[in-house]
Design goal:
The complex is a heterodimer. Chain A is built from 19 helices and no strands. By secondary structure, chain A is mainly α. Classes of the chains: A mainly alpha, B alpha+beta.
């Protein structure tokens, strides 16, 4: 690639035939998925292969939930890698960080859409979750922490981290200049600005890592806390979720890095060292997961009560055995491939990509096996075994989501550099010391005060909404109190009186006045502090 | 405030499934949906075979897993102990269904349009309903109930929401018995206030040994079984209802 002053870096703004083909394919798949979804909206979930547990002998959760779990899992690796690069100062991995962040954001978006596709009343879901969401439901974490907190935090991190490159791109005249200017939002590249960015991104990374473990664990708890479902009710559920999340996400990241290495001819920036690092990380995670698998099988088969063993037997020898052994085989092969490369100290990108593909197939298989068999074969009353086969509508919707993700990723790669632009003017190297040292000269500038106040206020709002306003924790939930918000900021009588005149206004009021909305606003406020801190207008010297 | 509960006498139940029929008629539930279900069980090897029957309504647990997991509080526990489903608030995530160990929840996979217990197409019915239905709405099932004034009776056969046995809240609030109890020909099903020592359920529970289904899970069901034993590993279901929507 001939790089001139006039051209945007990394093929931004340049449409190639290969790209067009990919986008065309993605659009086609997405449209097919959209059409399937409209059909599902019209006719109801009867068009899926899902059915009721019990006399109907089905599984009410199927492909949608399995892929929701998969997508959330994929999102794990992206932001983890980005945060690790920042926290451990892994300079050689820097080209990877934006790719990884984008993967997180898009995967989370797809996860939210997959759940929306699963809801019988999607519109009510959008309205009632902010109005009535209860902290006792394991869904609360998925909904507030994963979608609101995690997605928003990733977006903020992504935005702030991209400002420098946006500023560089904005200098080059192109049709995208306005967009780049908007993103740069006045970034000049002064030492103070760089210092501030180091500081915010460090604290964001610190905040994101625990958030991410919590968020992935809550998704594990959605299953792991169900006493009535053998195969789900296990303490291993949450940790296994986190590890599998890392495996699928890292696998996908390897594939993406290899694609961009080839497409952008970025052999120097995306060098073998990066792939080695990813490979080693993946190797360790697969080892942990295989260990978990052995423990799980042993617990189910050796000690297991009849119900636990029945679920385990359908996995190992019964209806689900093909999927189970296929997943294990995929994991085993990629483990062997990686072990060989780790031990021989020789690395092949093609083998790494192969492992990436294999672990993602395994991840989809394992997610399916976590969700479904406990429903069809985990009955505690003698109903008889059920069955679940995904219908074409479900498959089309899921493919459509994957198409949408591909489309977003491909389009983004053409409007913004997917890797950090190398620039000689990067003057201020990152130092951990700087984060903890007081801001230069003035001890507390208004920008610091406002940012800290926002963080404190955000956490306070979260705490108030969670502990005092939302439905109280209670065991057992003996009274209707445990299912309704305790405090509603806009009284229901007011909402009711408004409703007769303006229904939309009443709806907005009831949403704004409810504790879950307040909690989410608190989460958002905390992370917005980083933006305020960086974008606070510089006082002219 | 009463504390409602049900007692099921397994030694009386003869598996006629009249309660299932009564439930379907009363609540007008769509095809393939059985809020009340009667298991027909078989145990042992020929010639030592025993057959027995076990009705399965919603257990209306005191520590209900479905109430705990509902993300929006559509499934909730009333003061009088009924586990209710607000079908106006339900978002259709089916979490209650996967959380319930008893398999009593039924999702409305589609808008119920046909195969109701009455054929709405016949001319005699048309003259009564003036062609307005289906889905037919019993005005009693549509009303809000309880202090919370929420729509929890079985009127919400709306596409995409969960429903289950309501203990016939629309009848109970008027002082009547649930439809299944009222229609049992051998009085195998009893219903009443567990806090009232003179109620029929309290008297039976005082006199007879009883058990609750899957008691070991700690769900604290409000449905008590007397005159039998819980199904075990050797229990096989025979003649199951194989209705799939």
């Amino acid at each position: 690639m001939r790089r001139t002053k006039e051209r945007l870096p990394y093929g931004v703004g340049q449409i190639t035939p290969g790209w067009l083909l990919l986008v065309g394919l993605a659009v086609a798949v997405f449209v097919s998925g959209l059409q399937a979804y409209l059909q599902q909206l019209r006719e109801g979930l009867v068009v899926t292969g899902l059915r009721d547990i019990g006399t109907m002998g089905g599984a009410p959760w199927g492909l949608y939930v399995a892929f929701d779990v998969y997508f959330v899992g994929v999102s794990f690796a992206g932001i983890t890698v980005a945060a690790l690069i920042r926290l451990l100062n892994l300079k050689q991995l820097k080209p990877l960080s934006r790719m990884a962040e984008l993967l997180t954001i898009i995967a989370l978006l797809l996860a939210a859409l997959a759940i929306l596709a699963d809801l019988g009343q999607p519109l009510r879901g959008l309205l009632n979750l902010p109005r009535y969401a209860r902290p006792q439901s394991p869904f609360f974490g998925t909904f507030t922490l994963v979608v609101a907190g995690y997605l928003f935090a990733s977006l903020i991190y992504f935005f702030l981290d991209g400002r420098r490159d946006a500023a560089i791109c904005a200098r080059i005249p192109s049709s995208l200049q306005g967009f780049h200017r908007l993103w740069a939002s006045g970034y000049q590249g002064t030492p103070e600005e760089q210092e501030r960015h180091h500081r915010t991104s460090f604290w964001l990374a610190i905040a994101i890592v625990p958030l991410l473990v919590t968020a992935h664990s809550t998704l594990g708890f959605v299953f792991g806390l169900q006493v009535g479902r053998p195969g789900w009710y296990s303490a291993l559920q949450a940790p296994a979720f986190v590890v599998m999340a890392g495996i699928s996400g890292l696998g996908l990241l390897v594939i993406l890095a290899a694609i961009f290495r080839r497409a952008l001819r970025a052999y120097e920036s995306l060098n073998l060292e990066i792939f080695q690092w990813l490979g080693r990380f993946l190797f360790i995670l697969i080892a942990i997961y295989l260990y978990f698998t052995v423990v799980e099988v042993l617990t189910g088969m050796y000690t297991g009560g009849q119900y636990e063993r029945r679920v385990m037997e359908t996995l190992l020898f019964g209806d689900y055995a093909p999927i189970y052994w296929f997943s294990i085989l995929c994991l085993g092969i990629s483990f062997a491939l990686l072990a060989f490369q780790v031990l021989s100290q020789r690395w092949w990108i093609s083998l790494l990509v192969l492992s990436g593909v294999l672990v993602n197939l395994a991840a989809v298989g394992k997610r399916f096996l976590i969700v479904v068999p406990s429903q069809t074969h985990g009955m505690l009353l003698p109903y008889g075994p059920g069955s679940y086969v995904p219908s074409p509508v479900e498959v089309r919707i899921i493919l459509g989501l994957i198409g949408l993700g591909t489309l977003l990723y491909a389009v983004f790669a053409k409007v913004f550099p997917i890797m950090e632009v190398e620039a000689p003017e990067e003057a201020l190297p990152w130092q951990a010391r700087m984060v903890f040292s007081m801001p230069s000269r003035r001890a507390l500038s208004p920008r610091t005060v406002v940012a800290i106040a926002m963080v404190v206020a955000g956490f306070a709002i979260q705490a108030i909404a969670y502990f005092f306003f939302a439905a109280p924790w209670g065991f057992p939930p003996r009274s209707p109190v445990y299912s309704n918000p305790r405090v509603v900021l806009v009284p229901t009588t007011v909402v009711a009186s408004v409703e007769s005149r303006a229904q939309a206004l009443a709806l907005a009021l009831s949403i704004l006045g409810s504790p879950p909305t307040l909690f989410i606003l608190g989460v958002i406020l905390v992370f917005l502090a980083a933006v305020v801190y960086e974008l606070w207008p510089q006082k002219p010297a | 405030m009463p504390r409602y509960g049900m007692v099921i006498d397994l030694s009386r139940c003869m598996g006629c499934r009249a309660c299932m029929e009564a439930c379907k008629v009363e609540n007008n539930t769509p095809q393939a949906i059985f809020w009340m279900y009667v298991f027909r069980f078989e145990e042992g090897e020929f010639p030592n075979v025993r057959q027995w029957f076990m009705p399965r309504p919603c257990m209306h647990c005191d520590n209900a897993p479905c109430v705990k997991v509902c993300p929006v509080g559509a499934r909730y526990k009333r003061e009088d102990g009924l586990v209710a489903t607000d079908w106006e608030r339900c978002i259709g995530c089916r979490y209650c269904e996967v959380a319930c160990p008893y398999g009593v929840n039924y999702f409305n996979w589609k808008r119920p349009d046909r195969n109701y217990y009455l054929d709405w197409g016949v001319p005699e019915l048309r003259s009564i309903t003036s062609g307005a239905v289906p889905p037919y709405r019993n005005p009693d099932l549509d009303q809000p109930y309880g202090e919370e004034k929420r729509r929890i009776a079985g009127g919400g056969h709306v596409k995409g929401v969960i429903e289950k046995c309501t203990f016939c809240v629309h009848r109970v609030e008027k002082g009547k018995l649930p439809a299944c109890v009222a229609n049992c020909p051998v009085q195998a099903l009893l219903f009443g206030d567990l806090d009232d020592p003179e109620s029929v359920v309290s008297r039976v529970l005082r006199q007879k040994p009883h058990f609750r289904l899957l008691e070991e899970l700690g769900t604290e069901p409000r449905v008590f079984y007397v005159g039998g034993k819980p199904p075990g590993p050797e229990t096989r279901q025979i003649e199951p209802v194989r209705a799939r929507m």
